[in-house]
Amino acid sequence: MAATTVVASPPAAAPVRCARHLVPTDLWDKQVGLLMRDHPYDSVMAARVLGQGYAYLLTAMNHRGEGLGLAPSKLVDIGVHTIILDTVAYAELCEKFNGGQFLHHVPEVDMKNDGSVIKTAHIVAADGWEVDLQLWTDAATCGPCHPGNDSH
Questions:
Q1: Fewest 10 Å CB contacts: which of 12, 44, 91, 103?
Q2: What span, in angstroms and rounded, lies between the C-alpha atoms of 149 and 152?
Q3: What percent of the chain has pLDDT over 90?
């Protein structure tokens, strides 16, 4: 299944940002490995999920306090959790991109099928990040991101 990328008209001079380019190789490889260990992903799918997790978190940090109602898809949320659970690396990410404040992610939020996920994907794209649209359109088609947790 080929990835579909969408970008919301950033200025012509601004290149699309790819989260992979800001994460040190050893950390990226470690987190891709964690995704492959914990989910039925090959390295390509794990990298896609991880990249979208970073793009979402960095967008959320950029818009902290704006009340935009940002919401990851279930697949993107798997990447978000992988990043957050790597606590030391996540603390460093927050230090660098969020003024040292942890961006709190509520793990028990009900996933809504109200358009907020696609709206978030457009905000991520508007911030200049590469958006893998297939990973953002799973809200109505993907099962729970955590086995046994039907509320998330």
A1: 12
A2: 6
A3: 60
Q: Which two tokens stand for residue 40?
A: 């039925």
Q: How far apart are the first and last CA of the chain?
A: 25
CB-based burial label for 21 (10 Å; 0-12, 13-18, 19+)? exposed
Q: Which two tokens stand for residue 10?
A: 């950033």
Nearest to 65 by CA among 108, 98, 113: 98
Could you tell me the CA-to-CA distances from 112 to 19, 46, 83 in Å, in that order?
25, 24, 22
pLDDT one-digit tens code per residue, 106-138: 544 455 567 889 999 999 999 999 999 999 997
Which pTM was predicted? 0.79
